[in-house]
């Protein structure tokens, strides 16, 4: 059984990808879905890495997602897009913190957490 930290991390990354795709659909501009789809693929890689116990890949993928949302939040977009990307960036940073906890570390290394 995977620890709560890993399951919660996977759920947050998956939900964030769905939310970001939904926000892109609200913009109704041609070609705006390309970047959210790329980020959804990176999110899928992160979730797969969490499930297959590849910690470095999961951390790098989630770090890239956090960086991408931070850049979007600092860009010249409508206020609602910047605020939502800022919240998604914070969620991804929280996932990184969750993946660095003791139970998650034990899950990835296979060493029991004492």
Q: What's the helical proportion of residues?
A: over 70%
* Helix count, DSSP H or I runs of 4 or more residues: 5
Overall shape: it is elongated
Ranges with pLDDT <50 over ≥5 residues? none
Class by helix and strand content?
mainly alpha
Distance between the termini: 17 Å
Transmembrane segments: 6-26, 33-51, 57-80, 87-108
Keywords: Membrane, Transmembrane, Transmembrane helix
Could you characterize the architecture of this molecule?
The protein is mainly α and 114 residues long. The chain has one domain (4-109). The protein is 79% helix and 0% strand. It is built from five helices and no strands. Helix 3 (55-73) packs antiparallel against helix 4. The two termini are 17 Å apart. 30% of the residues are buried. The model has no long low-confidence stretch (mean pLDDT 92).
In short:
This protein is an all-alpha fold and 114 residues long. The chain has helices spanning 4-27, 34-51, 55-73, 79-99, 102-109. The chain has one domain (4-109).
Short key terms for the protein model shown above:
79% helix; 114 residues; mainly alpha; 5 helices
Question: Would you spell out the secondary-structure blueprint of this structure?
Answer:
Layout: H1 4-27, H2 34-51, H3 55-73, H4 79-99, H5 102-109
Helix pairs in contact: 1-2, 1-4, 2-3, 3-4
Transmembrane segments: 6-26, 33-51, 57-80, 87-108
Keywords: Membrane, Transmembrane, Transmembrane helix
């Amino acid at each position: 059984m995977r620890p709560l930290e890993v399951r919660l991390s996977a759920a947050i990354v998956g939900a964030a990808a769905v939310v970001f795709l939904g926000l892109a659909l609200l913009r109704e501009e041609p070609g705006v879905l390309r970047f959210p789809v790329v980020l959804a693929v990176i999110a899928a890689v992160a979730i797969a890495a969490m499930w297959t116990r590849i910690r470095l890949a999961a951390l790098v993928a989630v770090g890239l997602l956090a960086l991408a949302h931070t850049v979007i939040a600092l860009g010249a977009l409508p206020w609602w897009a910047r605020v939502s990307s800022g919240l998604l960036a914070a969620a991804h940073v929280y996932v990184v913190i969750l993946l660095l906890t003791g139970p998650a570390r034990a899950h990835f290394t296979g060493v029991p957490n004492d």
